[in-house]
Inverse folding.
C-alpha cells in the first residue's frame, strides 16, 4: 500500500513538475483555481508560491504522509465529499483527477490548501467541500523526515 501511495504522489509531482517545465502553458497549468501561481523554478530549484507570494523551496521527498495508507486518504476524502451537507447527488460529476497542494508548518498544522486549476472545467460546486475538509485534517498526518520548517504534500483525488 505504501508503494502505491508513493507511486501516485510521485505521479502527481511529475505532472506538476512537467507542467512547470513547459513553455506557454506554465502559467495556466500551474495556477490554483483562483488564478494564483502554485510553483516556479529559479535556476535548478523548485519553489512553492504561497498565497501571499512568498516562496518555499520544495524538497524531492515530501517528508509527510497521511496516517494509514493511500486508501485511508481516499476514504477520508470520499467521506468528506459524500457526507457534506453541500453534496448534491443530482449535480453532474465528472470522471477526472483534482490535485491539491497542502502546506504544513513544522507542527503539521495545515496552513494552506490550494487546488490546481482544471484544464477543462471552471468552478465546481464541490471545490469548497474538499478544501475545507483538507484544512480540517490536522492530526491525520505524520512526518517521515524530521527537522523541516515547512512540509508540502501534493494529493491527487479522482472525482467520479
Amino acid at each position: 500500500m505504501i508503494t502505491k501511495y508513493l507511486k501516485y504522489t510521485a505521479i502527481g509531482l511529475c505532472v506538476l513538475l512537467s507542467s512547470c517545465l513547459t513553455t506557454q502553458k506554465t502559467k495556466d497549468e500551474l495556477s490554483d483555481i483562483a488564478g494564483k501561481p502554485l510553483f516556479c523554478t529559479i535556476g535548478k530549484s523548485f519553489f512553492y508560491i504561497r498565497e501571499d507570494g512568498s516562496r518555499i523551496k520544495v524538497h524531492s521527498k515530501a517528508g509527510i504522509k497521511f496516517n494509514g495508507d493511500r486508501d485511508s486518504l481516499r476514504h477520508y476524502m470520499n467521506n468528506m465529499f459524500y457526507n457534506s451537507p453541500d453534496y448534491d447527488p443530482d449535480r453532474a460529476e465528472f470522471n477526472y483527477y483534482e490535485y491539491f497542494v497542502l502546506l504544513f508548518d513544522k507542527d503539521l498544522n495545515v496552513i494552506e490548501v490550494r487546488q490546481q486549476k482544471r484544464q477543462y472545467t471552471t468552478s465546481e460546486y464541490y471545490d469548497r467541500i474538499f478544501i475545507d475538509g483538507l484544512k480540517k485534517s490536522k492530526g491525520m498526518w505524520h512526518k517521515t523526515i524530521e527537522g523541516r520548517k515547512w512540509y508540502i504534500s501534493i494529493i491527487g483525488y479522482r472525482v467520479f
